Amino acid sequence: MSTHIGAAAGDIAPFVLMPGDPLRAQWIAETFLDDARCYTQVRGMLGFTGTWQGQRVSVQGSGMGQPSLAIYVNELFTDYAVESVIRVGSCGALTERLAVRDLVIASGACTDSSMNRIAFEGLDYAPVADFGLLRDAAAAAAARAATRGPGGPAVHVGLIFSSDSFYAARPELAARMVDYGVLAVEMEAAALYTLAARHGRRALAICTVSDHIVTGEETTSHEREQTFGEMVEIALTAGLVSGAPGTSGA
Ligand SMILES: O=P(O)(O)O[C@H]1O[C@H](CO)[C@@H](O)[C@H]1O
Ligand SMILES: O=c1cc[nH]c(=O)[nH]1
Questions:
Q1: Residue 249 counted as domain residue
Q2: For residue 68, what are the domain limits?
Q3: Which residue's C-alpha comes closest to atom 2 of ligand 2?
Q4: Which ipTM value was assigned to this complex?
Q5: Residue 82 lies in a domain
Q6: Residue 7: inside a domain, yes or no?
Q7: Among candidates 228, 1, 227, which has minimal Cα distance to 103?
Q8: By its UniProt entry, which Gene3D superfamilies does this protein fall under (predicted)?
Q9: What's the CA gap between 57 and 96, in Å, rounded?
Q10: Which of 32, 111, 112, 147 sits a CA distance of 20 to 30 A from 68?
Q11: Is residue 250 in some structural domain?
Q12: Ligand 1 center–CA 233 separation, angstroms
């Protein structure tokens, strides 16, 4: 066991999906994985391992915000030898180019968090996605859209803003960020990308737009927990198509 994850060595797969919401983790495990088993309930931050198309996958809740995610990701990398993590989160759209339920595959994550400023003594570090996972997620999204035809959620690749505040202290900054290409706001990806770089592992964040900062449209908590399956299937395809080592269910 690690400090915050109640799993034995080998209980967690090399590839992990990571929603903020532990109940979304449970829904993903019950909906998408075969033979899913819960390996931790410490602090209610549920984690499961099962198989998807015969390959081992884990799903681990991160909690909300970068400090919480960093606890789980540090322990996954150092105590459980996890190789790749794809965050499957929700986000708020900052621009009318995006609609509620659209997907954002985050190529990089701006942040107002002090975590990297402390680590880099004032230098601005640029947290970016793993290119292979990003490429494979974009390809999986395009293939699904081509098979399905018109009507599914639009998929955007670009920058997001990982904020320490759900209730923005300076909401007027959103328009300036949009001018510089930022599409949406969430609360964890910058720490995930930074820790993956630090540990030489792979990370990506895919988020579904749950709220629209411009129009005020929003989804319910039940929808955020149990209906964002398109991003989950794209994440599973990207994580396992890229051939993460040790994912074989055999
Ligand atoms: O739905 P999750 O994955 O938790 O992500 C978003 O939702 C939470 C805020 O409601 C934050 O964690 C934010 O990043
Ligand atoms: O507006 C939103 C929606 C989801 N997550 C956030 O951090 N902000």
A1: no
A2: 15-241
A3: 92
A4: 0.97
A5: yes
A6: no
A7: 228
A8: Nucleoside phosphorylase domain
A9: 35
A10: 32
A11: no
A12: 19
Cβ(124)–Cβ(225) under 8 Å?
no
Q: What is the DSSP string of 78-136?
A: HHS---EEEEEEEEEE-STTS-TT-EEEEEEEEE--SHHHHHTTT-----B--HHHHHH
195 CA distance to ligand 1 middle (Å): 18
Digit-by-digit pLDDT tens for the chain (250 residues) are 999 999 999 999 999 999 999 999 999 999 999 999 999 999 999 999 999 999 999 999 999 999 999 999 999 999 999 999 999 999 999 999 999 999 999 999 999 999 998 998 889 999 999 999 999 999 999 999 999 888 889 999 999 999 999 999 889 999 999 999 999 999 999 999 999 999 999 999 999 999 999 999 999 999 999 999 999 999 999 999 875 554 444 3
CATH code of the domain containing 22: 3.40.50.1580
Whole-model pTM: value is 0.96
Q: Measure Cα distances from 156 to 66, 181, 235 in Å.
A: 23, 12, 14
One-letter amino acid at 218 equals E
Ligand 2 probe mutation, 164, 177, 206, 211, most atoms within 8 A of CB: 211
Number of domains in the chain: 1
Ligand nearest to the CA of 187: 1
CA distance 67 to 57: 24
Pocket test residue of 186, 204, 213, 231 for ligand 1, highest count of atoms within 8 A of CB: 186
Q: How far apart are CA 22 and CA 24, in angstroms?
A: 5
